[in-house]
Design goal:
Two copies of one chain form a homodimer. Helix content of chain A is about 40%, strand content about 15%. By secondary structure, the first copy, chain A, is α/β, with parallel strands linked by helices.
Chain lengths: ~375, ~375
């Protein structure tokens, strides 16, 4: 077999992720490697941790990127805290809540799901009621459901969880740096994210942050964490002054993450949130002009992931294929109960730009008329 | 805080990994992303699988890169096959054998370690004897021990394992593409490797290959794999025609892996092995001229990782620090029982070049005299 030079088509990525990486982020990955024991690399690790604390809005010491994709971050957020028999309450209003429940059960948790239809969110009363039924070790919620386009309001949720002596775990895969996210102010104990959404880095790293309260749970475990690769008590030794070897971290992805985080800091969190919001509003009004209703009510709608409802005239797969083949634009179809009913259009990080919104709307205008 | 442009020093990486990545590999990572559902990306995945089968010398269908570092490959090779109570025999003659035993025990295996001092290898008789004691589900060996510099001979080992109805698991992290490795001919059932050793790609991917016999063990499991992220029955669905979503794979690391594998194919496996061998011999004779003995007997010595014994005149840390600070050369110290007793000098992949050997020997000559 002859393998040609790598020459993929140039896509405009407007799906649920990965998003487009900024040229600065891409170039940073081509930087020659340092070794993982190099003091110069350790400085870069320190900077990445500082920048992660900034974007998570936390002073949590245990804040670092897991060497895996967002799903590895999800699993790390569960396996380090759950011991067999622990009761975990999971809010399931989309695909990723369901995944949390599945992984928690693999570690022996007794899982209670509170369910809502895909696209809805939970009220504080509903959460209070779920936690009142029996002692709970952890409450897990998805902040920004990439499968539905809904944003879970967080007002008062941390207080409710702590009043019931439960850890609060928040999936921030799609929300980090795209909408306000305040780990400390909201009393979130465990949060994980992913590099390839609003941070606009390539996939392969999962930022995670753990409160001191949750660290104490790790310290008091009776059993070893079943998962060795994601065992935070081992990983944190490499990410602290002792630099004790656990695994060889993905050097170039850490270069990329540093550059992506640095760009968040340069832009400023508020400005970045505003950009995501205004680009989303441009998309929403354009979609409405094309006849689409939007699946999620405006109050709970994610700016970075929009789910227009497909009406009778729309041939789901045919239009998505034409967007990809003729316009080099990627958007995604619906998942699970929303398959064939909505599209998922992402405007995250470097993908969230006026030119991309205008291009997509123009292309859809061509294809639908 | 102000974060400057990324500007790490240019190191010559001659430690146990990561190795230097070829400029072609580095450049490939700067290629703009495709989405993970893009048919053009699926073609790249198919090519990576074909190339991995070539470097592993196997026709195993289940051959793919795990989205994590070599240690994730190790864990995937254990957690998918072990169920609580299974008996596993592990050859421990270095650090990584010990790690296999630790991870296997986390999944409930009853582990029997056969031990040798660090730098020695196992004979077929020793393995036969260990397997004769009781029924064994899996025999795990390390092909190239990066902590010691020893190469485990594989003649007849596969036959012994299968005669005792045990799966043969082989750690090929440091051996893949550096020395002959014949998965099918040797009857190896499960092998994992890492991208950042002789393949000379950045860390973050763990190639793995599984025989049909071992796949059957996965199919017949009674319990779910405790580890969700590394569950091969889910991962394989994305790496086969159904392309069913499991996690977002690290697109750019897959670009890099494809380029690194393509370069192995261009060079040819035999030529690549010869290069590693001849550069190692150049290093060995140079080290001997500088007064070093080599820890591993020539018969079992790895070409890609050499462990010179530190004699009285050598100040371990002082010389390694000067190599790094004054010459930009990274080598590594010894581990565990070999700490302070040997260095670990790697000549892997793109690091295995005459100019690097000559430079290192000249620098050591400066520093020791």
């Amino acid at each position: 077999m002859v393998y040609t030079d790598l020459n993929p088509p140039s896509r405009t990525l407007l799906g649920p992720g990965p998003t487009m990486a900024h040229p600065r982020v891409l170039r940073s990955m081509a930087t020659p490697l340092l070794g993982y024991i190099d003091p110069e690399f350790h400085k870069i690790m320190d900077e990445v941790q500082e920048l992660l604390r900034f974007v998570f809005q936390t002073s949590n010491n245990l804040t670092l990127p897991i060497s895996g994709t967002g799903s590895a971050g999800m699993e790390a957020s569960l396996c380090n805290f759950i011991e067999p028999g622990d009761h975990v309450v999971v809010g399931v209003n989309g695909f990723f809540g369901g995944r949390i429940a599945e992984i928690a059960s693999r570690y022996g948790a007794e899982v209670s799901c509170i369910e809502k239809s895909w696209g809805q969110v939970f009220s504080p009363n509903e959460i209070e009621s779920a936690l009142s039924k029996k002692p709970t070790k952890m409450l897990a919620l998805v902040h920004a459901e990439t499968s539905t386009g809904a944003l879970q309001p967080m007002d008062g949720i941390g207080e409710i969880a702590h009043r019931h002596d439960a850890l609060l775990l928040l999936d921030t895969v799609t929300s980090l740096s795209g909408v306000p996210l305040k780990i400390d102010e909201w009393n979130v104990d465990i949060a994980y994210s992913a590099s390839q959404k609003c941070l606009s880095c390539p996939p392969g790293m999962a930022p995670i942050t753990i409160s001191d309260r949750a660290v104490e749970i790790i310290r008091q475990r009776k059993s070893k964490v079943a998962n060795w690769y994601l065992d935070l008590s081992l990983i944190e030794k490499y990410w602290s002054d002792s630099r004790q070897y656990h695994h060889t971290v993905p050097i170039n992805l850490i270069y990329a993450l540093r550059e992506g985080l640095r760009m968040v800091q340069e832009e400023g969190l508020e400005a970045r949130h505003s950009r995501h919001r205004s680009m989303a509003e441009l998309l929403w009004s354009g979609l409405e002009s094309l006849g689409f209703e939007l699946h999620v009510t405006k109050e709970h709608r994610l700016p970075m992931l929009t789910t227009p409802v497909l009406y009778s005239k729309i041939d789901d797969a045919a239009i998505r294929n034409k967007l990809l083949d003729d316009y080099n634009i990627e958007i995604a179809g619906g998942f699970g109960p929303l398959a064939g009913k909505v599209w998922r259009i992402g405007l995250m990080g470097h993908s969230s730009r006026r030119e991309n919104v205008v291009l997509l709307l123009a292309a859809l205008g061509d294809l639908i008329d």
